[in-house]
């Protein structure tokens, strides 16, 4: 989904949000509105909470303390102060601010939970989150502070603080100002929280789910990009496309593998380079694994993404809070705030990303090695020896892949008990999400370097012409960076190709010729 394809308005509380809607609001600033039916649900839930708040019955988050202090009863006169104290004390994040799109995704997903009618939050408070999004006011949320259980507590507390008029926000122009000043600029005053609302504002897995949604969106583009890069490398290295045939894939019918292999067949269709070595004179019996097994690896990544999407769909249709207001008006404590389901798939995706980048780097290394590249010059340089060509680009690629392997170490297997052992097992899902974001960026850069190298390889096979699909990608790259020639400052060129990968230009160029790729 590009900025041109995004929904311009997202209705919250009408039906579960989709990944594309999350991205539209978080990344492309789509307008947010609350469905009328959601307002009715919120009012009904609020009435149930108000009734409990007026009673003598101890209810967690309404008339008691929090976490290990849940046994402390709060007198009715102090219950609004309890909510404010909770938000202030839990806004304890530290470290660098996280990205704007992550905070916006977090705000949207917390709003989605409000609109289910299971939290007891008043429509007035929910509208504050709508206003934060639509006015472009982004609470400053810090890198550290969430254990991924009892919700993304500190990140959500910083958002809650901004919503009520405390703390700081970043304006749309990037300047950071006190939240009270930002609200005043838009003619709005601070608001006070009622019973349970402070807890409802901070008790969700919205940060990790928001980052999962953004990663899933990006990984769809990057898996297709990986197939394009592999096709270009197979072609430049005089590999065979016979191993990608559909009947071979049906022998081991993983859906992701079949989709990846079909992409490779479409991308290599009509290649004069491929046709040049299909005859009996070709002495290569089998290609290296990094070529021959490209759809097996990329396909496994696709199937991992599909599993993660199923988890995300369930989460996007859920109300994560504790306690929750049930349809019959009961308010019950629960453990639905635990981030394990999301944390596991975040870690699983980081493993898949690392492996997809690893096989890409191996193909690049093969393109640069004259002993294995079937006649290409050393390091794809213009005058090897005088020119180092893309030698150090592969070093950068290898450094990223090494980092990705470290980022693939699961966060969700770790747990540090908190809150005086009341919260004695946590998911670390926020940490899993943060490292996945870094991994996705790394994969993007690794694929861009492979495309840079493969583009040179295809040019050096002249006068043989590449396939129309890969030729279109080569042309798109050459619009931004020159081809083989004397050594020059390489970093800016690599960044331009990274941008072509990031903005979807590479995928669009191929699909304009091949038709839709999976």
Automatic annotation (TrEMBL):
Belongs to the PAL/histidase family. The gene is hutH. It is found in: Cytoplasm. It is an enzyme of class 4 (lyase). InterPro entries: Aromatic_Lyase, Fumarase/histidase_N, HutH, L-Aspartase-like, Phe/His_NH3-lyase_AS. GO terms for biological process: L-histidine catabolic process to glutamate and formamide; L-histidine catabolic process to glutamate and formate. Coiled coil: none annotated. GO terms for molecular function: histidine ammonia-lyase activity. Its EC number is 4.3.1.3. It catalyses: L-histidine = trans-urocanate + NH4(+). Pathway: Amino-acid degradation; L-histidine degradation into L-glutamate; N-formimidoyl-L-glutamate from L-histidine: step 1/3. It comes from the Bacteria. This is Histidine ammonia-lyase. Gene3D superfamilies: Fumarase/aspartase (Central domain), Fumarase/aspartase (N-terminal domain). SUPFAM superfamilies: L-aspartase-like. Keywords: Histidine metabolism, Lyase. One of its GO terms (cellular component) is cytoplasm.
């Amino acid at each position: 989904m590009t900025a041109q394809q995004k929904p311009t308005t997202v209705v919250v509380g009408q039906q579960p949000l989709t990944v594309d809607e999350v991205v539209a609001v978080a990344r492309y600033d789509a307008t947010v509105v609350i469905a009328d039916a959601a307002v009715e649900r919120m009012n009904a839930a609020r009435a149930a909470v108000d009734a409990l708040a007026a009673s003598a019955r101890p209810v967690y988050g309404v008339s008691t303390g929090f976490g290990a202090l849940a046994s402390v009863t709060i007198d009715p006169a102090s219950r609004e102060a309890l909510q404010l104290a909770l938000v202030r004390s839990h806004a304890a994040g530290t470290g660098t601010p996280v990205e704007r799109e992550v905070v916006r995704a977090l705000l949207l997903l917390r709003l989605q939970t409000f609109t289910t009618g299971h939290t007891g939050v008043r429509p007035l408070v929910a509208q504050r989150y709508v206003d934060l999004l639509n006015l472009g006011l982004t609470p400053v949320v810090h890198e550290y502070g969430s254990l991924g259980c009892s919700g993304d507590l500190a990140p959500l507390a910083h958002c809650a603080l901004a919503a009520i008029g405390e703390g700081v926000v970043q304006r749309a122009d990037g300047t950071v100002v006190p939240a009270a000043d930002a609200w005043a600029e838009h003619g709005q005053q601070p608001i006070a929280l009622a019973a349970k609302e402070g807890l409802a504002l901070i008790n969700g897995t919205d940060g990790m789910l928001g980052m999962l949604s953004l990663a899933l969106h990006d990984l769809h583009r990057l898996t297709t990009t990986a197939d394009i890069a592999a096709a270009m490398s197979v072609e430049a290295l005089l590999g065979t496309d016979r191993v990608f045939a559909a009947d071979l894939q049906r022998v081991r019918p993983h859906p992701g593998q079949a989709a990846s292999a079909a992409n490779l067949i479409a991308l290599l269709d009509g290649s004069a380079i491929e046709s040049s070595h299909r005859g009996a004179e070709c002495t290569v019996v089998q290609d290296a694994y990094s070529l021959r097994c490209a759809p097996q690896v990329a396909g496994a990544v696709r199937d991992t993404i599909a599993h993660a999407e199923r988890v995300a769909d369930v989460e996007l249709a859920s109300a994560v809070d504790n306690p929750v207001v049930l349809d019959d008006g009961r308010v019950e404590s629960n453990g639905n705030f635990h981030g394990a389901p999301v944390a596991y798939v975040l870690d699983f995706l980081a493993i898949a990303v690392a492996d997809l980048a690893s096989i890409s780097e191996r193909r690049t290394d093969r393109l640069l090695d004259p002993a294995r590249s079937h006649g290409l010059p050393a390091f794809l340089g213009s005058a090897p020896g005088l020119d180092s060509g893309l030698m150090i680009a592969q070093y950068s690629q290898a450094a990223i892949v090494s980092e990705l392997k470290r980022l693939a170490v699961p966060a969700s297997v770790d747990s540090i008990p908190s809150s005086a052992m009341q919260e004695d097992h946590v998911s670390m899902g926020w940490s899993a999400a943060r490292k996945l974001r870094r991994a996705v960026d790394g994969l993007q850069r690794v694929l861009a370097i492979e495309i840079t190298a493969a583009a040179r390889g295809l040019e050096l096979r002249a006068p043989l012409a590449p396939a129309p699909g890969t030729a279109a990608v080569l042309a798109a790259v050459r619009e931004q960076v020159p081809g083989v020639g004397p050594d020059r400052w390489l970093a800016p060129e690599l960044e331009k190709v990274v941008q072509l990968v990031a903005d979807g230009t590479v995928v669009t160029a191929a699909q304009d010729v091949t038709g839709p790729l999976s």
